[in-house]
Amino acid sequence: MTKMTKMTTQVNGSRVPKKRRVHKDTPSSTRTKTSDFSYGLPMPIKLLPLKMFTFKPVLVTETSTRFSSESANANANANANANSKANGNANSRAQANANAKAIDARIPRTRAYHKSLKEYNLKHNDYRRYIQFLVIVGPDPHVILFKPNDQEMIPGGALDATESELDGLKRLWRELFHAGSISDHQIDDEVQYKDVVGQWYRPDLSDELYPYRTKYVNSYKEHIKTYLVGLKKPLQITYPHIFKNCIMIDLYDIYDKKDPVVSSIPFMLSRFSFTSD
Length: 277
Description:
Layout: H1 2-7, E1 8-11, E2 14-17, E3 45-46, E4 54-58, H2 69-85, H3 88-104, H4 111-124, E5 128-137, E6 142-146, E7 156-158, H5 165-177, H6 184-190, E8 191-202, E9 222-231, E10 236-240, E11 246-250, H7 260-263, H8 265-268, E12 274-275
Parallel strand pairs: 3-12, 4-10, 5-9
Antiparallel strand pairs: 1-2, 5-6, 5-7, 6-11, 8-9
C-alpha cells in the first residue's frame, strides 16, 4: 500500500498515476524514436555521373606494372624457359604461350589462376589475400566490372605475402585503373575506401567460395575482401588490356550472373543509399 502511494497522487478523492517528468533541457533530437528506421545506416554515398568518366585499355608490360611479385616472377621464369627451349618463330610462339598463361593466372575461375594459387600456398604455407574494388557510378547506380572472357569479374588482384593491406589497396588501384602511372598522394585525392562489404573464403583449389569461415576446413587457400570505393572526382580510367573489356552494369541486371560474388553485389550494397545530388 505504501509503494502504491508513492506511485500515485490524490485528486478529488481518487488516485491517478503521476505524469512522467520530461527534462526541458533535453533536446528532442536525442530522444529515442521508435519510428526512426534509419538509425545506424551509413550516410548516402554521392555518385558521380557516368559521362564524367572515360575508359581506355592500355598495353601493360611487366616494367610498368607487376600485379604482384609472385605473378611477375612466374612470368619471368616462364619467359626464360621459353627462350631456352626454342629459337626463331618457335621461340616467339613459346614466349607468347608463356605470356598468355601468366595473364590467365590473374583472371579468376581459370586453370592457370588455381595453379598460381597452389604455388603460392606451397611457397608461403599460408592462404593468399585477394582484394576486390566495387566502384559505383551514377546517376542510376552502375557497377564497373571487367570482362576478360564470357564471365564478368570484380576488378581486383592478389596482395604480396609481406605487403600491408593499405599498401596493397593503393598498388592495385594504381595498376588496375591507372596502368601504374599515379602517386599515392593522387590516389588519396580521388579515392575513398568506404567499407568492406564482403569477405569470401576459398576452401580448396576450385571456384567454390564460402561467405564465412567453417570449422570443417582447417586451412583456406584464399581470403577475398570486397571494398566499396567512393570516387571524389571524375577519372580517366586506363585499365590493363589483359582484362579486354571494362563494362558498366546496372545493379538490377546482375542477379542472373553465374559468378556467385558478382551476382551478390546488389545484396552487399543493400544497406547503402546513393545520391547523385
